[in-house]
Amino acid sequence: MHRVAEAVDRPSPGSAQDLEGDAVPAQPALPVSQSVTVAVLTYRRPGDLAAVLPALDQQARTLDPPAGVLVVDNDPDGGARTTVVDHGSDLVRYVHEPEPGIAAARNRALTEAGTDLLVFIDDDERPSEHWLVDLVRTYLVDRPAAVVGPVVSEYERDPDAWVAAGRFFDRRRLPTGTTVELAATNNLLLDLAQVRREGLTFDLGLGITGGSDTLFTRQLTRAGGRLVWCDSALVVDVVPASRLSREWVLRRAFRSGNSWSHTSLLLAASPRERAVQRAVLTTRGTIRVVAGAARAGVGAVTGSLPHRVRGVRTVARGAGLVAGAWGSVYSEYRRP
Questions:
Q1: Cβ distance 96 to 81 under 8 Å?
Q2: To 5 degrees, how large is the angle CA 19–CA 21–CA 25?
Q3: Other CB atoms within 10 Å distance of the CB of residue 285
Q4: Last residue of a domain, one of 240, 267, 299
Q5: Comparing 28 with 161, which gets the higher pLDDT?
Q6: CA-to-CA distance for 212 and 196, rounded, in angstroms?
Q7: Which of 78, 153, 174, 177 has a CA that sits 20 to 30 A from residue 162's CA?
Q8: Is the model more confident about 246 or about 14?
């Protein structure tokens, strides 16, 4: 595995490398009065699920009483059931959500959890040593609506120089306690009482396009909920070789801008506000396209690969913003 966002000489605790090495010393479980469920959503990735379940089982036992682990299988054929049964833990529960789309799977986790706190993690991620404890501890400071942790990527194989220069897999890192306005569900703790008080669920209309987590957390903050960052609650995203192509990373950059525009229009409270948002998004997207093209041009003239690739990345995101502003929606989770 090859670390993307951090330069390190050895695997960090909880990384995919560390999970394959020596076991870390056991720590006393954190006493908690809140009940906790860790939800992992999966769709036809038995290898990833089999790899993450032992780590989640171990994480669940770092709390006292232990958390539950909920596997939500979005495969119409229910293919993940065998993996869960083979794992054989009394802390892990399986549910089958046949309705296609990641939003339906997220909503199933909301309804099935039955606990005070719900923690989302992806099946292709690996938690760091004190991940769950750090999320819960940060929550206990002042009980915000949500706690958000960082995601650091590792490559399954070395990317080519073009993809590496673009830094497509770099993600934000912030001081613990920082308030943020939105988050993905790849490393997210939710206070379900606050979520239910606002009547929030994930928008099923975004189940195939993606962006339901962006909309959900933006709605939560708009309703007055606080999202707090916990920088020590890190998870490692294992990036498969299939996602290291130039085409894939540029599609993801386009989708990022597209999703932002789409959710911004959905949040608009009136036709007038929607028209204003459309104009703002179009302007911002156009500026990005122009600025990105200029940077790419400078990179081509000077021979700077980072400038050239990051310029192209900016163009892709800007194009996504403009396309989304005018109703074109990219379907990231489209199925065969």
A1: yes
A2: 80
A3: 25
A4: 240
A5: 161
A6: 17
A7: 174
A8: 246
